[in-house]
Amino acid sequence: MPVTSTKHLTAATLADVARLAGISRATASRALGGYGSVSPSVRTRVADAAAQLGYRPNVVARNVRTGKTSTIGVVVADMSNPFFAQTTRGISDAARRQGYQVMVVNTDESLEAEELGLELLLNKRVDGVVVAAASRTDIQHLVEAQLEGFPLVLLDRRIDDLGCDQVTADNKLGARDAFATLIAAGHRRIAFISAADPDSLDQPDGLSTITSSGADRIETYLQAMQTLPGRAPAAEYLRLAGFVTGAAYRVTADLLALPERPTAIFASDSVIAIEVLWAIRDAGLVVPADISFAMGDDVPWALATNPAISAVAQPGYELGTRTIEMLLERIADPARPHQHLILPTEFHRRGSIGEPPPKR
């Protein structure tokens, strides 16, 4: 039956909604809370009554009653990175559609900041956490979060030694296509520039000290170079710049000063790609006439340059939405088996790749 309302001068209560809808308070609570057995017609009447009365549920009281905060914690490495901006937007949109709010902590790739940020979120009693981890080996804080009963999903960066849900992109797929394209265009001196720690490859564990996304790209590069005729290119074409501003520029300048400079450069992500392109410009070189270029993240500005930049497209937004889906499944069923979802990447060749220039 239609619901008629009267003007309330004070805040409406659940009892007011139930009275206006002509049902019990318990039924109104189930209808508004989305749980229990309530017919669609009754649910509609309750929603109409709540809207007409301007009813706002007492979130604090509900949280005390259910033991939930309707909040999800997110720990990301660098919010200024367009990739993480996309994934975080996907997380936020998907969480909001399910009635959750999101708290985001930015770590700047610092393990210490990650540990402190995670502790902050857990102290806020979030219902679950999403983490783009800074390390694949220093994971005790993540293990402890799980032992405390907090649902955890890893975003973008897998950790093979941690038993939890994970949502990542197939970074090897897109990188493999990128290097194959450069080789098919005739390039043999192909440089790879990454934001990973410059000391990583000198350590006994090598690539295992680098995030999985970065390590996958480096491993794919090394495999591709081994397919070239003759001796694999010198190690000096593989450069790890680190996360310090200006480091990628300096690394690129060093590469371009080599007696046999690279004829193509692949930058691991769109953030360091900007510095690489600046260094190419300042060296008086033109893309692709003098040097070809590609990067590991596809971003809107890649189409705004002349020529447009060849790039590996990652499903950043979908990574975010699928991460929330997996986290909510874990919250609903803590005992279910762990899942690892891998989404495909795709290389887009554009005008930044040409043939190698004539030998100097």
Summarize the entry for a quick read.
One of its GO terms (molecular function) is transcription cis-regulatory region binding. Residues 12-66 form the HTH lacI-type domain. This protein has 360 residues and is α/β, with parallel strands linked by helices.
Structure characterization notes:
Helix content is 40%, strand content 14%. It has three domains: 14-57, 434 Repressor (Amino-terminal Domain), CATH 1.10.260; 67-169 and 316-344, Rossmann fold; 171-314, Rossmann fold, CATH 3.40.50. It has 360 residues and is α/β, with parallel strands linked by helices. Helix 8 runs parallel beside helix 9 (212-226) and helix 10 (247-256) crosses helix 11 (270-282). The chain has a six-stranded parallel sheet with strand order 2-1-3-4-5-11, sandwiched between helices. Strand 3, helix 7 and strand 4 form a beta-alpha-beta unit. It comes from Nakamurella panacisegetis. GO terms for molecular function: DNA-binding transcription factor activity; transcription cis-regulatory region binding. Keywords: DNA-binding, Repressor, Transcription, Transcription regulation. Residues 12-66 form the HTH lacI-type domain.
